[in-house]
Amino acid sequence: MQSIALALGASLTWGFSDFFGGLKGRTLGVLRVLVYVELGGLVMIALIVAIRGKGPADLGALLAIPAALSGTLGIFAYYRGVAVGAMSVVAPIAGISAAVPVLFGIATGDRPSLWQWLGIAGAIGGVFLASREPGREGKVAAGVGLALLAAIGFGGYFPPMHAAGNADFWWASLIFRMTSTSVVLAAVAIRRPSLAVQPIQVPLLALIGIGDMLGNLLFAAASTSGLVSITSVLASLYPIVTVVLARLVLNERVARSQEAGIALTLAGIALISAG
Predict the structure, then answer these.
(1) Which among 2, 139, 189, 218 is most buried, taking Cβ atoms within 10 Å?
(2) What number of helices (H) and strands (E) belong to the chain?
(3) Among 203, 23, 81, 177, which Cα is nearest to 15's?
(4) Cα–Cα dist 25/38, whole Å
(5) Model's pTM, two decimal places?
């Protein structure tokens, strides 16, 4: 029960941070936002680990490195997708990352239930509906390709981060953030974008980063007592939070067929979790 609560907590914090991070990415630029978001999360988890004053319990925590590489790809693609498309379309499609740990579980001996198989089918069908814009000769909705890339990135994050968290979730969270921050700073060094923002934006972006870091920490902690096929899919429910916020705060509206696709995708994620 504790692992379920922690995984759902991760989903909640990720939902909020993805919404506000994506919103800031639209106005300030994705790479610029990611720099402050990553640094904010890194400072917080570094302080926590330093206060604990304990070294890593197991070298398995280093699996947070591949998790960070995949997760950073996912968050960059997600922010870019939100910058060009509707958040209420991009977020559910990114949420099909829930299928990746299920497939990983199959490969390592798990057997999905009938509900999980139905959930995977529903999520795939929902993506197809949500990605099509009626009246535009069947053209794919803006941001869908990036949302699918985000789903791949987020999906690749779960299995190695689950193993890293099971080894030492505190250090796994720190190693993850150190790696992801390094990747973003490397991209900045190559692209050389302006990083200037208004001073008032800095604590807001740092708060988003702390929320994202907290989601990583909660998921890693859930991994100590929960199965990867359960904790990962529960943590993947974050699109529900993002979609609700997009409707309430941004008043986003999409076509009826896309609404059906969004609902089917979210229902598929829920079925994967319920299985």
Answers:
(1) 218
(2) 11, 0
(3) 23
(4) 13
(5) 0.84
Q: Would you list the DSSP string of 93-150?
A: HHGGGGHHHHHHHHHTT----HHHHHHHHHHHHHHHHHTB-TTTTTPBPTTHHHHHHH
Alpha helices in the chain (DSSP H): 2-28, 30-52, 64-84, 87-94, 99-107, 114-130, 144-191, 201-222, 228-235, 238-245, 256-274
Query: Which amino acid is it at 13?
Result: T
| H or E element, residue 274 | helix 256-274
What the block records as the tokens of 246 is 């997009």
User: What is the amino acid identity at position 99?
Assistant: A
Query: Where do we find the tokens 């319920």?
Result: 274
Provide the sign of the torsion angle of the four alpha carbons 256, 262, 268, 271, taken in this order.
Answer: negative
Provide the angle, in degrees to the nearest 10, between the axes of the packed helices 64-84 and 144-191. Answer: 110
Tell me the C-alpha to C-alpha distance, in Å, between residue 38 and each of 44, 60, 97, 209.
10, 23, 21, 6
Q: Which residues pair with 140 in a beta bridge?
A: 132
- The conformation of residue 236, written as its DSSP 8-state character, comes to T
In total, the chain counts a number of residues equal to: 275
Name the token pair of 5: 């609560």
pLDDT by residue for the chain (275 residues), tens only, comes to 677 789 889 989 998 998 999 899 989 999 999 999 999 999 999 999 999 999 888 899 999 999 999 999 999 999 999 888 888 788 888 888 878 887 887 787 767 778 878 887 887 788 767 766 555 555 666 788 899 999 999 999 999 999 999 999 999 999 999 999 999 999 999 998 889 999 999 999 999 999 999 999 999 998 887 777 677 777 877 877 887 888 788 887 767 877 788 888 888 877 876 66
